[in-house]
Every structure is written in structure tokens, then in C-alpha cells.
Design a protein that fits this description.
Helix content is 0%, strand content 25%. The chain is mostly beta strands. It has strands at 2-5, 8-10, 13-15, 21-24, 27-29, 32-34, 38-39, 42-44, 66-68, 83-85, 100-102, 117-119, 134-136, 151-153, 168-170.
Amino acid sequence: MHLFYRNLLAAGLVLAGTGASWAQNNLVITGPVSATPSKNNTLIGLQAGVNILTGPVNSVIGSENTFIGNQAGRDNGQGYHNTFVGSLAGESNTSGNYNTFVGKDAGSNTTTGGANTFMGTTSGSINTTGNGNSFFGYQSGGTNLTGVFNTFMGSSAGLYNYLGNYNTFQGSSAGQYTHSYGI
């Protein structure tokens, strides 16, 4: 059984899977919607949420996500309560929850990390599993890989903080070359 209703598509495509499928209340602008089942989605941008799977009240996949931009949230499969805005923002997120990434490549390699806020071009772009981080500014926390509970404010603040935890850096390039724990 395939049910499709109240879908607004602008250069979009609703894809019907096999078996019982439905798609409803979807807004799609330049991207596909898989109907296995999905509803209440907002997809804006080339391949934004291209791997949409399941979940009600979404803006792409999981629950209550909003993905806007070229490939924003592309790999999200089970993540929920995420907001990714910008080209490649949150692109690799698979199951991370409660993330907010704004800017080109912001949080682009985060896979399972959660409760992160990255704002600025390439902010937190290498983060994979780090949790509870707040990075504000161009390249802030850009190479944070697994560090947790860091706060970096300013252009390039904490840029090379690969594994450090519980750090706070404020100002342009503050703590740029710090790699250690809790300074």
C-alpha cells in the first residue's frame, strides 16, 4: 500500500519503496523523499537528507530534524532533534542527537556526537564523537576529534584541540595549539 498526500515538491521526487509505504506533509525543494515511511519533512538543498528513512514530525530523518543546504544532514539515519544549516553541515551525522551546526562544513564529520553547537565555517568540522561542545567562529574547534565539553569562542579558537576535554578559550586564535586536557 502506498499513500502519498499533501506533498509539495519543487524539483523533488517521491520514491515509493516496497511493501506498506507512505509519505505525507513533506516539503521538498531539490531533493528526493523516500516513502519508507516519512512525514512532516522539510528538505531544502541538493541531497539534503537524501537517505531519509523513518520518523514522524521530521525535517528529514529521525525525529524533528531540520536540514537546509547542499548535502546538509546527508547521512542522518537515526539522529533526532538536530538542526543543520549550510552546505555539508552535519553531512556525516548518522545517529548524533541534539546538535546545531550552522555554516559551511560545520560539524561535517560528526557521526555520533551529540549536544554540540558549532557555528561558523568549518567550526567543529573534524569532530566525530565529541559531545557537549560549543564552538563559535570561523574554524573554532576545527580539528576537535573526540574532545568533550569544550567551549571555544572566536576565529580559530581551539583550532588544534584534537582530544582535549573541558577547555574554555575566548578570543581570536585563543588556545589554538592546545592539545591537552582541562587547562
